[in-house]
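Structure (tokenized):
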């Protein structure tokens, strides 16, 4: 819906550009295109569980799952202050596959590791008892950990870097990783 006004503006500006002389057209076009880069105001692109896990495996990217509910205030706070923060969103969007799973969706069927689950069964299998909770999967779709509760932006950024560098494979605790300025180099 938000793209429609952009398209209309683009059509208007394109007709204006093509009606101008060549030198004015090049200057105006360059100026206009500089604003066409993705803006920070655009929301993070989320995937549903089944598609997101398949995409993560296909693209060999780690997967981060936000387990949420519509009524949860801390879920909304994670969305606004953490997932969409200007510092985290680019890394989250480019280096990971962001997945959202509504913990109260009674109709959604999860297919994971050749098994089929309801959302309730899947949450139970992961021992998720509250929201928000955040799950981290490696690029093969294997669950590394699930962290309950709100995660502050600085800690979430460290978690993303920890996952991106696969420091969990080196048996390095997250606390040690953070003490080493977000590095798992020995």
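Design, position by position:
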């Amino acid at each position: 819906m938000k793209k429609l006004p952009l398209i209309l503006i683009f059509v208007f500006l394109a007709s204006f550009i093509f009606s101008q002389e060549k030198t004015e057209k090049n200057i105006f076009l360059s100026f206009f295109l500089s604003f066409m880069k993705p803006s920070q105001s655009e929301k993070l692109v989320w995937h549903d569980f089944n598609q997101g896990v398949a995409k993560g495996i296909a693209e060999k990217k780690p997967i981060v799952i936000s387990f949420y509910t519509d009524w949860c205030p801390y879920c909304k706070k994670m969305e606004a202050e953490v997932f969409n923060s200007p510092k985290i969103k680019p890394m989250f969007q480019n280096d990971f596959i962001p997945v959202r799973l509504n913990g109260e969706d009674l109709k959604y069927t999860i297919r994971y590791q050749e098994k089929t689950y309801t959302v309730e069964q899947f949450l139970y299998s992961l021992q998720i008892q509250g929201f928000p909770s955040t799950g981290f999967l490696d690029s093969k779709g294997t669950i590394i950990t699930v962290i309950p509760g709100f995660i502050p932006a600085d800690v979430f950024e460290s978690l993303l870097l920890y996952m991106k560098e696969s420091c969990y494979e080196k048996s390095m605790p997250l606390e040690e990783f953070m003490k080493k300025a977000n590095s798992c180099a020995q």
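Reviewer-requested clarification: Helices lie at 3-18, 22-33, 49-59, 73-83, 89-95, 119-125, 153-164, 174-179. The longest helix spans residues 3-18.
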